[in-house]
Write a structure and sequence with these properties.
With 253 residues, the protein is of the alpha/beta class. The chain contains ten helices and eleven strands. It is elongated. It starts with 5 loop residues before the first strand and ends in a 5-residue tail after the last helix.
């Protein structure tokens, strides 16, 4: 992430932000009255926290958000520098059953936002994403994730291979996904030390160098005439199946 301030917008995203991490909010931009119930709730929380609120017109909100889908609310955030503060060693030591999602070079911000939202819903505790050859955590990602970034640790790094090797040394199982795999996700056996699953972009998939580090490489079976699934849909299929297996073995509850 850059050292500059950034903006997030939309009712779901801003509500999640002000409830989970209000300390990162520098300023609130809100449309002029009248307010609906959701905007009123955000305003009441903001006043309780003594956060600065600026009332501006919708066109100004659109310019700040660089989108007209702001729903009347935009937050200016300070740079929280998640990547530089996150300690992977501490995470491994403190997380009883790591449930990790690794995204390799996903470039579409809406796809990434949808994937993050799904990962949050499935109970993942950490997302690792490649810093280069990948879209940044932009306002569009925040908006599409609909609050999914709250409550999740995010690690952005270019040395994904080194991180995977560290996870393997700590007996965390690495599962790769590839259309060319011979076994399906339904056949994957899950270890009781936690799991990290790697998902790639739709056009290139997971890189060969990362697949070579995986304990298991599997695919989602396709029964119809399409060749593959959208990465956000694939993320949902894979994570919920793995979650179900982890719950069945009482690794996660």
């Amino acid at each position: 992430m850059s050292n500059e301030s950034k903006h997030v917008y939309g009712l779901h995203t801003c509500t999640a932000q002000i409830k989970a991490n209000p300390q990162n909010i520098k300023k609130i931009f809100i449309k002029r009255p009248p307010y609906n119930k959701n905007l009123n709730n955000i305003i009441q929380i903001a006043k309780t926290l003594s956060l600065k609120i600026d009332e501006i017109d919708k066109d100004a909100l659109t310019r700040i958000a660089t989108s007209n889908k702001h729903q009347g609310i935009v937050f200016e955030l300070s740079d929280i520098k998640q990547s530089s503060k996150f300690n992977i060693d501490l995470y491994i030591q403190s997380e009883k059953t790591p449930f990790i999602v690794i995204f390799d070079s996903i470039q579409d911000p809406r796809n990434l936002g949808s994937c993050i939202r799904t990962a949050n819903a499935a109970g993942a505790s950490l997302i690792i994403k490649k810093k280069s050859s990948s879209c940044n955590i932009t306002p569009v990602v925040h908006k599409t994730a609909s609050g999914g970034l709250q409550g999740l640790s995010i690690l952005e790094a270019n040395n994904i291979s080194d991180i995977i090797k560290k996870l393997k040394k700590n007996n965390i199982q690495i599962i790769g996904t590839a259309d060319s795999a011979t076994s399906t996700i339904y056949e994957a056996n899950i270890d009781n030390n936690g799991v990290a699953v790697i998902l790639g972009s739709e056009d290139k998939g997971v890189s060969k160098s990362l697949l070579n580090l995986c304990d298991i490489v599997c695919k989602i079976p396709i029964y119809g005439s399409v060749s593959c699934l959208n990465v956000s849909v694939a993320t949902g299929v894979v994570l919920y199946h793995l979650r179900r297996k982890l719950e069945k073995t009482y690794i996660l509850k």
